[in-house]
Write a structure and sequence with these properties.
mainly alpha; Fumarase C, Chain B, domain 1; single chain; Fumarase C, Chain A, domain 2; 2 domains; two-stranded parallel ribbon
């Protein structure tokens, strides 16, 4: 059970709820804050106070007064009009992350949500009633309005939901789970959709996958160093000390430890004086990618415990203040930075792959690692695929956060496009996993050529794990199933967890 209090949520908690199905519970202290804040909203309505989104319209209509008898209808219209996302539906784990993060933000007690509505959101998450949320349509400012409106529709008993593996009308899904829709009261619609939870939900899950990939990428790279008869001297501790980036030093230390016991690596001058950059500069490049992850983790950790809607209600002084915490710029920058960093992990991986399949660069490996060069093509076209994915990533890495299109008749005249950045980061990491998968499959083929017994103990364990499901390329076959299978295992951390449990170095 993960406790939501708006203050102490951790990224690993998001993963547990989103991907492992763990349930949530809102803390007693949070419920008390929610009730007190809701009482303040009821007071505003009773006193006919002019408050944005409570007794006024939204966006460009913020100067339009709403009569007391229409304040509830205003919220219903808001959700229905804003629930216009398009494109494929977000995956269930992303939807669960969004639901959890929105509940956590509301639990901070600055939004004015009612206990009944927040309780239903909590119950939907715990009962596995998931709204169908189209992936496209958010500007990443004013909140993730379109995606979160589809979440709010579920609580109203409208729209579509996924329940027990089936898609159905939301009202039917709620009924099957023994739940009942709510009628939104003053400010509740706005409280549900003003937030960065779509950006942050996608971002948190993408970060978790990136962290797994970065760790196992060192191990994959180390096997490639071995089969190319690389020179571990480049990973010497002294080199790292005179350029003291801690992440670079960590990767170099990891490489030294992984390669211990290898009978394939060479010394300076034995076969060549120095290796190509894609081998020699692994600590510098992989280390820089780890720096990116550190930055992204910091920003996500702040965002998942933030109040991001508008206006915010401050009980300590009674103020209701319109501001801009819904603007996704901090997370937009982080997502753009993440995808740029991850793309470099694939760029250098593809260059190592090229050295393995190119007989002019591989130091004696057969052309394209083919068992019968000429008659069979071996790993020729998988390298094409890796090159294609790397090129696609370069397009996806165009920063979304530098773009802004004015909306709402120029009232909302600067937006972050952070949700686009997060979606693209997710696509980038899936491409990176496939490139690393191709490198790993090729490295195993090359290791089989040399003899797997010559590998270091750490890389031999990884080789053996791969060979449990990916058979040697004794003759040409379609490698699509193998590439996708290995990529998914890398993204999910399956092999990483097995290697850690065995005492392997990652």
């Amino acid at each position: 059970m993960v406790t939501l209090d708006g203050l102490t949520l951790k990224l690993e908690d998001v993963i547990r709820v989103a991907q492992e199905g763990e349930k949530v519970s809102i803390s007693k202290e949070a419920w008390e804050r929610v009730v007190r804040c809701r009482n303040r909203v009821e007071q505003m309505v009773a006193n006919h106070e002019t408050v944005y989104g409570v007794t006024t319209g939204f966006g460009k209509f913020s100067d339009v007064s709403i009569s007391p008898e229409d304040v509830e209808q205003l919220q219903t219209h808001l959700i229905r009009s804003h629930a216009c996302g398009v494109g494929p539906a977000l995956s269930q784990d992303v939807v669960r992350a969004i639901m959890m993060l929105r509940a956590n933000a509301l639990a901070k007690g600055y939004s004015g949500i009612s206990a009944d509505t927040l309780r239903l959101l909590e119950d939907c998450l715990n009962h596995g009633v998931h709204p169908v949320i189209p992936a496209k349509g958010s500007l990443g400012a004013s909140g993730d309005l379109a995606p979160l409106s589809h979440l709010a529709l579920l609580l109203m008993g409208e729209g579509e939901a996924d329940y027990q593996g089936m898609r159905m009308p939301a009202e039917q899904a709620l009924s099957k789970a023994g739940l009942y829709p709510v009628r939104l009261k003053a400010k509740e619609g706005l409280a549900l959709i003003n937030g960065t939870q779509a950006i942050t939900g996608i971002g948190a899950l993408t970060y978790a996958r990136a962290e797994r990939l970065v760790r196992i990428a060192d191990l994959i790279a180390a096997m490639t160093v071995e089969v190319l008869r690389g020179i571990p001297d480049a990973f010497d501790q002294g080199i790292q000390q005179v350029r003291p980036y801690p992440e670079q030093a960590a990767v170099a230390a990891n490489m030294r430890e992984i390669l211990q016991g290898s009978k394939l690596t060479t010394r300076q001058g034995e076969l060549r004086v120095q290796d190509a950059y894609s081998l020699r500069c692994i600590p510098q490049v992989h280390g820089a990618v780890r720096q990116v992850l550190t930055y992204v983790e910091d920003k996500l950790s702040i965002e998942i415990n933030s109040a991001t809607d508008n206006p915010l209600i401050f009980l300590e002084n009674g103020k209701v203040i319109s501001g801009g915490n819904f603007h996704g710029q901090p997370v937009a920058f982080a997502m753009d930075f993440l995808k740029i960093g991850l793309s470099e992990l694939a760029n250098i991986s593809e260059r190592r792959l090229e050295r393995m399949v190119n007989s002019q660069l591989s130091g004696g490996l057969p052309p394209f690692l083919s068992r019968r060069p000429g008659l069979e093509s071996g790993m020729m076209i998988p390298q094409y695929v890796a090159a294609s994915l790397v090129s696609e990533n370069k397009v996806l890495c165009h920063p979304s956060s530098v773009d802004s299109i004015p909306s709402s008749a120029n009232q909302e005249d600067h937006v972050s496009m952070g949700t686009n950045a997060a979606r693209h980061a997710k696509e980038v990491i899936e491409n990176v996993a496939r490139v690393l998968a191709i490198e790993l499959i090729a490295a195993c083929e090359a290791a089989d050529h040399h003899g797997p017994h010559l590998l270091a103990p750490a890389t031999r364990r990884l080789h053996d794990l791969v060979r449990e499901t990916v058979k040697p390329l004794l003759q040409d076959r379609s490698l699509t199933p193998d590439i996708e299978h290995v990529a998914n295992l890398l993204l999910d951390g399956v092999w990483l967890n097995q290697l850690v449990s065995q005492g392997g170095k990652t």
